[in-house]
Design a protein that fits this description.
- The protein has 246 residues and is of the alpha/beta class.
- It has 2 domains: 129 residues, Rossmann fold, CATH 3.40.50.2300; 86 residues, Winged helix-like DNA-binding domain superfamily/Winged helix DNA-binding domain (Arc Repressor Mutant, subunit A), CATH 1.10.10.10.
- Helices cover 45% and strands 12% of the residues.
- The chain contains 10 helices and 6 strands; from the N terminus they run βαβαβαβαβαβααααα.
- A 6-stranded parallel sheet has the order 2-1-3-4-5-6, sandwiched between helices.
Length: 246
């Protein structure tokens, strides 16, 4: 049973999500909060597995609440965002969110998102993923995108030159050539199944390579892997999601 805390300053939104999630046999809504401060307090008290977190709320916003929840390892957070506010996505990445979901997502997508994050996967809505990648390839990574506290990839210290074959980002030195290749494909937005098909290997093999990448680079999840792929120069500006490696 996956325990869920709903956080939104609009009761109607919370009620709608509760109706959708409560009918699933493996999901349980254990509480609701109307602001970030209440969310942190209830997360400490109820210890949910997943917090569905709105961003714009009174008292304390969802980004700061996410930062506090993740810092104390209290729960995984899925931030509820809107398509035209990808600045929330950057702030949420820095705060440690495991997923981003559009508020207008359908019921099936909401349920799948909660299950995916509960199972340890990171989640970005496809529309949000494209926006994130567009901003990164434009060289517009804001400082708050960079992970802090040793929980993920650091700042762009030494970028690699993909065109010359020289890699000066020494964070990648511990990876094998195949692990490096997998990281690059993750950075392009490919799923495990798509990576397996591209490399002609089994999906279990891809998962093993990803596990090794996460461990060696001290990455929390797939979202941070995408960030690092861009920071380290594995993806050139202009390379779009799902584009084959050059």
């Amino acid at each position: 049973m996956t325990r869920i805390l709903l956080v939104d300053d609009q009761k109607l939104v919370r009620s709608g999500f509760a109706l959708i999630l409560s009918v699933e046999p493996d999901l349980e809504v254990v509480g609701e909060a109307s602001d970030g401060e209440e969310a942190v307090r209830l997360t400490r008290a109820l210890r949910p597995d997943i917090v569905l977190m709105d961003v714009q709320m009174p008292v304390m916003d969802g980004i700061e609440a996410t930062r506090l929840v993740v810092a104390d390892d209290l729960a995984k957070v899925i931030i509820l965002t809107t398509f035209d506010r990808d600045d929330y996505v950057y702030a949420g990445l820095s705060a440690g969110a495991s997923g981003f979901l559009l508020k207008n997502a359908d019921a099936e997508h909401l349920v799948e998102a909660v299950r995916a994050v509960a199972d340890g996967h990171a989640l970005l809505a496809p529309e949000v993923t494209r926006r994130v990648i567009e901003r990164m390839t434009a060289g517009a990574e804001p400082a708050r995108l960079r992970a802090t506290g040793g929980q993920g990839p650091g700042v762009r210290e030494q970028s690699g030159d993909h065109r010359t074959g020289q890699r000066t980002d020494h964070r990648l030195d511990t990876l094998t050539p195949r692990e490096l290749e997998v990281l690059g494909l993750v950075g392009r937005g490919l799923s495990n199944a798509e990576i397996a098909a591209r490399l002609f290997v089994g999906e279990a093999t891809v998962k093993t390579h990803l596990s090794n990448v996460f461990s060696k680079l001290h990455l929390r999840d797939r979202v941070q892997a995408v960030v690092l792929a861009y920071e380290a120069g594995l993806i050139l500006p202009g390379e779009a999601e799902h584009q084959p490696p050059g």
